[in-house]
């Protein structure tokens, strides 16, 4: 639910009492009324037009208009993102703009921006084409210049050779060559342009094959990537010139160029014209560059102007669209002059809603006021808990299992304490707890800044549960002090240890043991236990028995809460035939075990509790001998065993037959439960757990359901108690892992007396502690604590088959978008 930290009172035990309300709103004030409801955020509208399609509803045209404006705003946002702008955050607060004016303004801005983009694209394409053209002119002119220079040199060499080696035939041949008719000489044509470098080899091969080798291709690499005019992407290209003879060869060459995406550009073999063309192209490039820069500046100014108002426009369009969606949930009055709506609201918000209706009527200058009427219904209302930033994360954990039924006991009240405490039992190390606490302080002190930023999925979840993690860290420090572990190292924080060595050398400390010389250590585990030969048996026994005590206590709490649920809903059958036998069954077995644990701790007895519990079932009448902890224990065990046996049929048989009897009486009209009304016009729903109305009562289904429930309770008492032993197992694993990292990494590196090895050891120790103990172990303990609450605790009383109160609220719209 949305945070409600501004409320003066906050009751999390049961959900807020709800009204089903009917609203009759005149047309002229309907829009303003719904807008004020969105600001209030305490009214959930029911859809009275569920049978109609979205296109058949009254305000379909307005929603379409809002959708079109939202599309334009998305277009503006994309353009700003591409240009490197971000919408101004301070623009979300500003004067209200009329929807028609906003629609016209967004249309004008879109047309202007689209026209700018089109002109810029055309100019940029022309600019890129001219750049390529200039490259072709420069590179191809080098071809022709080098070719003409080479031809002139060959001609001079040939003439010199002929004159030096004069013969009888030479003058005749020379005269014949010089007298050749120029019109009979074969003139070669050529095609020039650019082709992608990765295609150049294939381009050359295809030209050769298509013309059967009757072409001459020259290519030169362009050093820097060029922007392709067609695609607009940077690409590496080669300048090419293809010489050919004949019109058919030209047609083939042009087709091959088109197939390879080669851009062709005209060229002349006249050197004078080449220099003139290069000069013209350079001038045009300068003019286009100046024009493009001016256009980009104008476009940037326009986008900056849009950015100042973007957040306000975006929020207004979202609000308008949500208002019209809500108006479509209202039905038309028969006179078609009013809109009729229904919905749920908390009882405490009744006066606020009436004030909103009056204010909307006055602000819209309506002559007719809206009508607010409370309806009577048997429909189950939605569930609404007023939470703040501290309790909202815990409530989300509970709601992930299932939303509470209307006014059912909320486990979140107890989970606020029990969840971090059970986590800490598994995570108990006050050094790790301090690290976790410091990390959460960072999120808490910077929560205003971080709440406005977009975090990753994992960081978003961590930030949302910062107060839960803070409680987990504080409880971990507490249990770590009880376990006396600081990164697995014990400290004498609360006084001197009660134990000491037998001699001055302490040689027999790990074999014979220690002797008690001082008062008992005042708080937590005595530091001398750590490292002693009996450390593991002692801590195992302590944590295992403590896990059973905590588990039985929490399961008893769950069963007690089922009593309060049944009493609140007036269901006496659940009190006498579920709550009572469940309490008897659980406490006859595991309540008795918890009693034995406490008595053994208080008396220091050496009794074997395993033996006591096993032979309580196998031989309840045998003498307990040395395992007897108190007088009358054998008689008490027999009584408790008989009570446990009686509790099973007590749960199984009476309730189905009593439900059948109630159904028959109701069917004959002998038993009715009237709806009760309180002074403030709120109501209590009639709850009937046996049947609904005059539906067919299936006794076999009810009996099978009760049989399954009885088996679940009987087996669950054993399995759930055993499940709490995970507290012992994970605590032991965490302690041993911490001890391994300290002894096998840090102390081992310290023993080498080498600075480099010590630094490496410290780094490995830090990374292992953070990665394994502070991240993986935290997640593991969190999931196990979650399972204990969902399965072992909440299954005792929590149905979780309700539905969440979802009011129409502009604040929720903003959160969803974020």
From TrEMBL:
Gene Ontology cellular component list: membrane
GO BP term, example: proton transmembrane transport
Location(s), subcellular: Membrane
Keyword Signal attributed: no
Highest taxon in the source lineage: Eukaryota
Coiled-coil residue windows: 99-126
Main location: membrane
Entry keywords, A to Z: Coiled coil, Hydrogen ion transport, Ion transport, Membrane, Transmembrane, Transmembrane helix, Transport
Membrane topology: Multi-pass membrane protein
Membrane-traversing stretches: 421-445, 466-483, 546-564, 576-599, 635-653, 745-776
Biological role stated in the UniProt entry: Essential component of the vacuolar proton pump (V-ATPase), a multimeric enzyme that catalyzes the translocation of protons across the membranes. Required for assembly and activity of the V-ATPase.
Membership in a protein family: Belongs to the V-ATPase 116 kDa subunit family.
Protein name (database record): V-type proton ATPase subunit a
Organism, scientific name: Abeliophyllum distichum
